[in-house]
Specification:
By secondary structure, the chain is mainly α. It folds into three domains: 70 residues; 72 residues; 82 residues, no CATH class. α5 runs antiparallel to α6 and α9 packs across α10. The longest helix is centred in the N-terminal third of the chain and has 54 residues.
C-alpha cells in the first residue's frame, strides 16, 4: 500500500494535468509494477470499494436497528398474550417455570431409558410405568393447555409408549408333575412364558437335543424358551407330524373290552 501511494504521489507531481480514464489493473499485478495511470485507477477502485462497504454497513445497521425494534415489540406482545393466558388458567410465571422444569426432567429421564438395550429396559418397566403416571398427572393440569407445552407432552406420550418391553424368559427349569403339573402344554400356557398352551411346539423344537418325545420331559431339565411370536413353518410342520403319529397310534391300539358283566 505504501508503494502504491508513493507511485500515485510521484505521478501526481509529474503529470498534474493529465486525467485519463484507465481501467483498474489486474489484482495479480504488483503495486511496484504499476504505471501512474494504473496506480490512480487502483486507488480509485479501492476508494469506491470502501465507499460501497460503508454504504452496506449503514444499511445493515439500519436493518439491525429495525429488527431489534420489531423483536422488542414481539416480545412485549408475547408477554401480554402469556399474561392473558396465565390469568385465564389461574397460574403465575413461577408456576409455568416450575412446570417447564418438570417437563425437562421427565424428558431427560425418558432419554436415559431410550439408551438402554431391550433386556435392561425390560428390567425397568416399573420405572417406565412411573414416568407414565407422572406424564398423566401433568397432562391433567390446567397449565398443560399452554401452547408451548402441547408438542412436548405429545412427544413424551409417544416416547414413553415406545419404552414398554415384555421381559423375555430365556430358560425354564422343569418341575415335577405332582407339584407343578409341568408338561410342554402347561409350560407354554404360563403367563411368564407365552400365556398360550398352543405354543408348546416352539419349546419342543428349541430343545430337540433333549426332548425326543414331546409327551415326556424330565424334572430338572432347563429348557430354552424362544421369543414369543407366531409359530414358524418348521414348528407347525413338527406339530402336524406329532398329531398324525398320535392318531395313528390310537387307531392301531387294541380295543379295551368294556365291563359288561351282569350280576347274578
Amino acid at each position: 500500500m505504501k508503494t502504491l501511494l508513493a507511485i500515485a504521489l510521484f505521478c501526481g507531481m509529474m503529470l498534474p494535468a493529465l486525467a485519463q480514464d484507465v481501467p483498474p489493473p489486474p489484482i495479480t499485478k504488483a503495486d511496484e509494477l504499476l504505471t501512474c495511470d494504473e496506480a490512480d485507477a487502483r486507488i480509485k477502485q479501492m476508494k469506491d470499494d470502501v465507499d460501497a462497504s460503508k454504504k452496506k454497513l449503514e444499511g445493515v445497521k439500519a436493518a439491525t436497528k429495525k429488527a431489534e425494534s420489531d423483536l422488542a415489540t414481539s416480545i412485549q406482545a408475547l408477554k401480554t398474550c402469556n399474561d392473558e393466558i396465565y390469568s385465564l388458567l389461574g397460574v403465575t410465571e413461577a408456576d409455568v417455570a416450575t412446570y417447564r422444569q418438570r417437563i425437562g426432567q421427565l424428558e431427560g429421564n425418558v432419554r436415559g431409558l431410550q439408551r438402554l438395550g431391550n433386556d435392561a429396559l425390560a428390567d425397568r418397566q416399573d420405572e417406565v410405568k412411573g414416568l407414565r403416571g407422572t406424564l398423566n398427572e401433568m397432562a391433567r393440569m390446567q397449565i398443560a393447555l399452554i401452547p408451548e407445552f402441547f408438542d412436548r407432552l405429545t412427544n413424551l406420550n409417544r416416547d414413553i409408549k415406545g419404552l414398554y418391553r415384555e421381559k423375555s424368559i430365556k430358560g425354564y427349569t422343569v418341575g415335577t408333575w405332582a407339584e407343578n403339573r409341568d408338561c410342554l402344554w402347561t409350560i407354554a400356557g404360563r403367563s411368564e412364558i407365552y400365556s398360550d398352551p398352543f405354543q408348546w411346539p416352539k419349546i419342543w423344537q428349541a430343545n430337540t437335543d433333549m426332548i425326543k418325545n414331546p409327551d415326556v420331559i424330565q424334572p430338572g431339565w432347563v429348557l430354552a424358551v424362544p421369543p414369543a411370536g407366531p409359530k414358524t413353518s418348521e414348528e407347525m410342520k413338527a406339530e402336524r407330524q406329532y398329531y398324525r403319529k398320535k392318531r395313528a397310534a390310537q387307531d392301531t391300539a387294541p380295543a379295551v373290552p368294556s365291563n359288561t358283566g351282569t350280576s347274578k
